[in-house]
Specification:
Elements: E1 16-23, E2 26-33, H1 38-45, E3 64-67, E4 70-73, E5 86-88, H2 101-108, H3 118-134, H4 152-158, H5 169-180
Parallel strand pairs: 1-5
Antiparallel strand pairs: 1-2, 3-4, 3-5
Pfam family, one: Fer2_2
Domain 2Fe-2S ferredoxin-type: 17-93
Organism: Micromonospora globbae
């Protein structure tokens, strides 16, 4: 994005700000136009193209990443509001030995077709698994006093903010269920 003079934002420019954010474990310092979304900062400034720009309105979930461990639609968040925050993208989910068990389960269950929504689906699924492990209920959780059991209905409800035009939903649910260790 450009400021009123047509040049790129610089430090001290009234339309830009510096932000230091940790992305996938690495601290990154950026000077960004104040209107830059987290999605655009990741893709255009950091070269992390896993999160996709689908609707750019927070409706499809293709841009889902983890912010401080919680699922967010990165197209809706201004990057300059994230100073000192921790962001994890699909690129940051794999470990030094290769893909994470969740990523492996997506492959094993053919939980994608065109693949466009897959990075957002995987980040959202990671969030679902973490929420359930913390005991956070959803709208369909039956027992609010015990541990959350990730049934198919529970997974579908929690993943409902991520759309798949190819309709790979049964495979996505199976991948999440396998990773959760739910039969």
């Amino acid at each position: 994005m450009r400021n009123g003079s047509g040049s790129a934002p610089t430090v001290g420019d009234e339309y830009s700000s510096r932000v230091a954010v940790t992305v996938n474990g690495t601290r990154r310092e950026l000077t960004l136009d104040n209107r830059t979304t987290l999605l655009d900062a990741l893709r255009e400034h950091l070269g992390l193209i896993g999160a996709k720009k689908g609707c750019d309105h927070g409706q499809c979930g293709s841009c889902t990443v983890l912010l401080e461990g919680r699922r967010v639609k990165s197209c809706l968040i201004l990057a300059v509001t994230l100073d000192a925050c921790d962001v994890t993208t699909v690129e940051g989910l794999a470990g030094p030995d290769g893909l994470s068990p969740l990523q492996e389960a997506f492959i094993a269950h053919d939980a994608f077709q065109c693949g466009y929504c897959t990075p957002g689906q995987i980040c959202s699924a990671r969030g679902v698994l973490d929420e359930a492990a913390r005991g956070w209920p959803s709208a369909v959780t039956d027992d609010l006093t015990g541990p959350v059991r990730l049934t198919d209905a529970e997974i579908r409800e929690r993943m409902s903010g991520n759309l798949c035009r190819c309709a790979a939903y049964p495979h996505i649910v199976a991948a999440v269920r396998e990773t959760a260790g739910t039969p």
